[in-house]
Structure formats: structure tokens, C-alpha cells
Amino acid sequence: MSVVESRSAPEPAAPSRQSLLALSWLNFFLSGMQTAFGPIAAAYLATHGWTAKDIGFALTIGSTASLVSQVPGGALVDAVRAKRLLVAAGVMTIALGVLIFRLWPSFPMVALAKVLQGITGGVLGPGVVAITLGLVGHARLSERIGLNQRFAAAGGVAVTLSMAVIAYSDSPWAMFVPAALAIPVLVSLNRIRAEEIDFGRASGAEPADADRPQRASYTALLKNRKLLVFAACAALFQVASASMMPLLGGMLAYEGKRQAAPLIAALIVVPQVLVGLLAPWVGRSAEKHGRKPLLLLGFAALPIRATLFALISNPLVLIVIQLLHVITGAVLGVITAVVIADVTSGTGRFNLAQGMFGTVMGVGAALSPTLTGLIVDQFGRSAGFASLAVEGLVALLVLAVFLSETKEDLLTSATELAQPYLGGTAR
């Protein structure tokens, strides 16, 4: 079965204000829950006498579980009609992992907790995007994801600042915060009206197939050129991006140890705030001007940032340079799912494609620290940043040359304009 070409179709009626507001708060609290678990876990294990090697091994187990879960998780999101229940199950799984962490901090139990947390990675992200698509439809997706990103960024910032206060007070209750956040997440999910989530539309199926969506074959998905090109670009981008912040943190710690902690906190929090402010604008611009111009802008910011990091060591200037990450974060946070929705429209495999995409990005992110670490050990930090700049530039060039615009109406307009010069029907 070949991939079905997307066709214009009437978009659904607007969902209720209650569902849209609940979706916003779902993103806020879920982001906070996921943000809280990672940093707290490492700190909590360290206070219980765990070595850095054992902590790293436990975290790697969780990352591996997350990577493995991406494709089956995406396929599950496509297949399950009760998407709210699926997301709720993922949230409760994280909460269970947090309680295991807190009550039984032995290696086997911690490994189990990290596996439980990891396997939710293939369900929660795609699940929330699927609910969004099922509610608002393809034409409104980019703008709505921009708003989702605003609330997710706000939730991440709120929890990061709250956890800093709790850590400073040395409260024994810090480890329960991620589990407690499951309550408002579930309340928000319950407030989204299930009847407003179109099952077929949530998987990128044709509108006529809403009850029993026709799905493209797995082989057809693997032959989707635009999806493969975009996945390759994203993998190259992750190879360049994933090591940037750890390498920068090491530089700040080396240059000024006393200021390192607040500077690193600023490098995390300030861009998050600005990403939240910028994301809705990105969503609106994607509808007006298309996806590719924004993608080029987001990809271009990375090699520029890496080059400047290689040349400059002043901590305050580094913070200013890091603000370029705002462009990248806002663009990719919004546009990635939108482009996947564009290129899989009509296939009924939108969430499976999200899972495939997540796997490829995860592999790129996993390779990045090793490759960069080898270069830094041999040639120093500046060379490490220079290598990231080159990798980012390669990703940008592949994107510019091989990925065409994915927004259907802009692509159609360009084809129609070219007709007089092509002398025939454009393909």
C-alpha cells in the first residue's frame, strides 16, 4: 500500500473552550512532572551513597528503555481509541516509578523505576500531540502546538525554580513532587472531552476514515522520502546539539567554579522562558509562511552558537550567546510534529512516524557525547565546539538542499506558479 497523498478536506468544528484550556494545563503539569523527575533522581541517589558510575548506569537504563519504546509506543497511540486513558496510564507509571525510587533506593528497584519511566517516553509525547491533532485538526495544529509549547515551557520553569527552593531547604519531601504532580495532570486529562477527540484524525487518517482508519503499510512509511530526509536532518542536528549544554556547563565550571551553578541555572531557565513566549508566534508563522523557512532559521542558529562558544570564554557573554538556543528550541519544539503531520497526512500512521522520528533523534543524541568527548579529550573544548558547529552546518545543508516545503497549500501554489515555465503538469 502506498502512502496516501494528503488531500484538502473540511476541518472539524472548533473544540470546546473547556477542552482547549484543559489541554493547556495538561502540557503545563506534565512538563513539570517530567522535568522534576530527572534532576531529583540523580541528586537523591547521590545522597544515598551511590557512585557517579552507578548513577550514570541507572540513568542509561532509563534512556535505553525510552529509546526502545518510541516505535511501539507510537504504534500503540495510533491504535488505541481511548487516548486520554493511554496518557493517564503513562502518568501513573511515572508516579509509580517515583514512589519506588523514594521507598526502595536499591539498584534493582531503581533500575525498575527508570525502566518504568523510560517506557512512558513512547506514549506521553505522541499521546499529547495525538490528542491535540484529534481536537483541532491539521489546519490548526501548528498554532495549537505553539500554545502547548508555551504552557510546557512555563511548567518546566515553574518546577525548576520550585525544585531549587526545595533542594536548598533540604526537604525530605522533594522526591514526592513528581508523583504529586500526577494529580493535576489527571484532572486536566479528565477535563478534555473524549467525544471531541476524533479517532481517525488523531492518527493522521483521511477524514472519511474516522471510524475505521485506513492505514498505510510500514513499508510505505519507510519509503516516504520527506519523512526520511527530515529524520536524517534531525539525527544530524541531535549529534551536534545534544553535547552542547554539557560541554558549556563544563566550560563554565572550569572558568569560574563559584559562579557555575547559578550560571548554568540561568542558561536553562532564561531560554525556557523565552521559548515559551516565542512558540505561539512560531506556530502562527508556520501557517502563514510555511515550515521550511522556520526550520532553516532554527537549524542555522546551532552552528552559529557553537562557533561563538568555540571563540569566547567570558561567562556572561556565553549566556547571551545561549539565547540563540531560544530560536532553535521554539522552532523545533513546534515545527517537528507539524512537519511529521504534513508528510504523513492520510496515512493513519502519524504517531508511529513520531515514534520512528523519536528513535532516530535518540540515537543521534546518544552518539553525540561519545563523539564530542573523544574530540575534547584529544584537542580541547574549543575543538569540541568547532566539531559541533561543523556537524550542525552539515545538518543545515542537508535540510536546505533535500527537504522541500511540506505545507500543502504553499507547495500547491508554488507548483501552479511554475506551470507556465514547466510546460506541463508538475510532479
Which characteristics define this entry?
single chain; 427 residues; mainly alpha; Growth Hormone, Chain: A; 18 helices; disordered N terminus
Please explain how this structure is put together.
- By secondary structure, this protein is mainly α.
- The chain folds into 2 domains: 18-203, Growth Hormone, Chain: A; 219-408, MFS general substrate transporter like domains (Growth Hormone, Chain: A, Up-down Bundle), CATH 1.20.1250.20.
- The protein contains 18 helices and no strands.
- The chain has helices spanning 17-47, 52-79, 83-103, 107-119, 121-136, 141-169, 177-180, 182-191, 218-222, 225-241, 244-255, 257-289, 292-311, 315-322, 324-343, 350-379, 381-402, 408-422.
- Helix 1 packs parallel to helix 3 and helix 16 (350-379) runs antiparallel to helix 17.
- The longest helix is centred in the middle third of the chain and has 33 residues, at 257-289.
- The two termini are 20 Å apart.
- The relative contact order is 0.14.
- The model is unreliable at 1-9 and 413-427 (pLDDT under 50).
